[in-house]
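Support case: user asked for a sample of complex input and structure output to validate their parser. Sending the pair below.
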Amino acid sequence: MQENYLAKWLNNELSEEELAAFKKSDEYASYQRIIETSDTLEAPDFDTETALEALRNKQSLTDTKVIRLKPFRRFLKVAAAVVVIMIGSYFYLNTLEETFTTQYAQNEEITLPDASKLILNADSEVSFSAKKWDKKRKVALKGEAFFKVAKGKKFTVETDQGTVAVLGTQFNVENRKGIFEVTCFEGLVSVTYQDKETKLPAGSSFMVIDGKIIPTEKTNTALPSWINKESTFKSIPLKYVFEELQRQHAITVQTQNIDLNKLFTGTFSNTDVTLALQSISVPSQLKYKSEGNKVLFYAESAP
Amino acid sequence: MSQTSVVNKDTKDNVCNEEVYSQLFRANSKTVFNYIYYKYGNEEKAYDAVQEAFTRLWENCSKVTPPKAKAYVYTIANNLYLNVLKAEKVRLKYADRVNTTNHETPEYVMEENEFKKKLDTALNGLPENQRTTFLLNRIDGKKYAEIAEMEGVSVKAIEKRMHLALKSLRDQIDGI
């Protein structure tokens, strides 16, 4: 009889001879009865559906509780934010423009990245991007400045009133309230005003006062007068002359009984206040009273 | 624990799929229950074992493939009371043999009941692994190979247990 023959017998794996021999044995009847009786045995009741239901209820309770925090993920969020801020500020700082400002009674000479020069008149502001200078020679101007542009690519001066473009030259741009004046001293300057381009040869000016283009005479000077500490006017309304006076001497000008649109032609000093006041008052037949930083101009005929 | 299961919860052929899971439960829970009951003779603990084993299966549903799920629940259920629970008396019922009882003489019935009592005693006298194997085969109709898978042993070891179980039962009953 082979090994574990009882197990083989139950599994119908005995050979015919083995089975016949086993059936003849004394114990066969006993085994047969044990198996027959065992096969009527039943396990305790177990309701599968009830158990599954119970399990689901338990799971729905525990499932909602299982929340695993991922502290590393939170760290990543912070790290990502830091990286974004760093990259952002790098690009911001990179594109940030350099700005120069002058106060009242102050001039400043600025050397641009390509050795072009500009001189800022009083109360003016110029800004440009040094990083992008190689690609684009461009400055933004508020106020007045004199440019000595080195030869090279197009050089652009942007103002809120118009755009001035040159290749290499010396020119002056005045961009004040009510006045937009460009004077070319050397080379050729292109001025775009209200989408209209005007070419200025050396010695000529382009002037807009209160939105009107004013024809100008040729100048013979090589530099704008303010570079030599003087302010020169040719048929300019008095209000703009007073404004320039305020800027150059850091004083406050008040007027009484004066026609501010009366044209003024002349020059005043940017260094000597008294001389400047006289330069304006005498030819215009005005009187003035000066008190500290305040000057009052009034008509001679007034009481 | 079940965090990772969220990722592929709805793919078919995955234990995390509600349908697949229920199917596994319906197919195996009763046997798990019986398996633990045959071992320890404690209905309550057997029921708890089913709950615990299938809860663990759900929690690890993404890590257990459907073909491995069966062995997984048996292992969990088996390990649950290992060396913890003391075996109690296994109480099994006998199905009524409706067709034959009417024709049996009272003597036969008495003798039959006597035999059943002896069998009960003999079964409880078996080592736990022999009893479990024997009952899984006779009551639940499990093949030796299936039992081997549940117990994590070879088919030959199951055959040995089966053989020894039947031999011991006969020795006990015939008073050898």
